[in-house]
Amino acid sequence: MARHVAKAGPGRSARTSLIRALTTAAPTDVSNQPLTFTPHGFRRLLITEAIRTGLPPHIAAAICGHQVLDTTMGSAAIHSDDVIAHHRAFNAHSRGWSAVQQCR
Asked: Smallest Cα–Cα separation from 77: which of 102, 43, 30, 104?
């Protein structure tokens, strides 16, 4: 008989850190009900913000380990027009950077 054993890993430590932070902050919504967050929710926020600030979507997909770009774009809460505009702005801003500066 196979038994499921919970493994400690990055998700578990992220969840533990998140629970501790939320317990301390105790955020609530407008009706004073506690807000709930998950590590996956923060992952979506991170990817959305990264793409919104100019990170090319295919790089975001690679960071997330997504094989299909549509998976990443489905997770990011932005429209394709926004992606294009922000990516163009990022490219205009980063022109002339050295390879070392680009990797920072």
From this structure: 43
